[in-house]
Amino acid sequence: MASMLMCFLIFFGATLAAGFSDTQPKPVPGLSYTFYKSTCPELEWIIRTYLKKEFKKDIGLAAGLLRLHFHDCFVQGCDASVLLDGSASGPSEQDAPPNLTLRPAAFKAINDLRALIDKMCGVVVSCADVVAVAARDSVALTGGPHYKVPLGRRDGLTFATVNVTLADLPPPTSNVSFLINTLNKINLTVADLVTLSGGHTIGLAHCTSFTNRLYPTQDTNMDKTFAKNLKLTCPAANTTNSTVNDIRTPNTFDNKYYVNLVNKEGLFTSDQGLFSDFRTKALVALFASNKILFFEHFALSMVKMGQISVLTGSQGEIRTNCSARNSGSGLWSVVEDLLEQLLEFPCRPQSCTHWIPIHQVKSSSSSNLEHALHLSRFG
Ligand code: HEM
């Protein structure tokens, strides 16, 4: 009987998973898999080499970088707005409660990478792209799938308010309906929800993220021994301690998160609910029994998440410091707009003579701006 049920779950899960395309997703307009081929061919090597070295000292950084990308993309798209410090205009996304537990080491790693990349290539790579590649490499270097990410994102000029950030990042106490609705608003499916939640196969959580399931009464949907051990780490609801997200293999990116859920050893309400709700249970069972399938779908959902509301072309800017908007970028974009209006018939780069790489003139240039400036000089 139990094996029949498992067969049914796996069949139903396979049907849900079939909603995915099995080919490399087509990048959204403006992004490409070869974006920095000529301007920064060393980009992926620089990031991977740096992370390999840093992970030897602190493997937890991988989880921090993966979560940073998720928190960037869910709030006004993958535009590195989560990296912006607060300003005179108000507190930034970083001040919103869900972001208070983002790891400082992850922010530092992005800034360190920014400096290394600038040295090798000039300021041509966006902070949003650095975050996306760092998240991808964090998955691969902890044992997860290797996949390509489309690049060419631009950095946002603004950050979201604390209230918007709070509304866009679902809390760990969410039930499945709430999660489905939240993801639906940004065109992510039920299957994406189950798949991306698999990110909780690495990293840590503070007691306050799950003590709602321990106190005042214990969640009946939690394994009793698991709950007993969690209570040792979190003797009261507001303890500041933390514990691992995945009790089986805490630092390895694998499918054990789903095995935990099948065994009622999921940490958050939002995790364990995925194995109770009829819309998500089958896919959890399928991923628990098939790591390769989970990896394939995780790669696809990450590429999808990584393209949410991206800025491309002449939108936004390439920040020189990931924590702050470029100074004078407002004035620069006015100049850019004016030049674009003045120049009605820009030539294509390959048909222009005397073409010069404009990043030597202004490092945060967009391709339109390069055009406009080139024409104004040599037109
Ligand atoms: C679906 C809704 C999600 C909820 C409600 C949620 C919630 C949380 C919470 C509460 C924590 C622990 C924070 C703390 O107490 O310190 C956490 C950690 C983490 N989350 Fe999620 N998360 C979700 C989705 C995701 C996604 C989509 C990813 C990536 C694909 C992700 C990756 C991580 C990682 C890697 C950690 C560990 C971070 C670290 O150790 O620094 N989460 N999440």
TrEMBL record:
It is an enzyme of class 1 (oxidoreductase). Residues 1-17 form the signal peptide. GO terms for cellular component: extracellular region. Its cofactor is Ca(2+); heme b. Disulfide bonds join C40-C121, C73-C78, C127-C322, C207-C234. Its main location: secreted. Its EC number is 1.11.1.7. Heme b binds at H200. Keywords: Calcium, Disulfide bond, Glycoprotein, Heme, Hydrogen peroxide, Iron, Metal-binding, Oxidoreductase, Peroxidase, Secreted, Signal. Belongs to the peroxidase family. Classical plant (class III) peroxidase subfamily. Removal of H(2)O(2), oxidation of toxic reductants, biosynthesis and degradation of lignin, suberization, auxin catabolism, response to environmental stresses such as wounding, pathogen attack and oxidative stress. This is Peroxidase. The lineage of its organism: Eukaryota, Viridiplantae, Streptophyta, Embryophyta, Tracheophyta. The gene is LOC120261650.
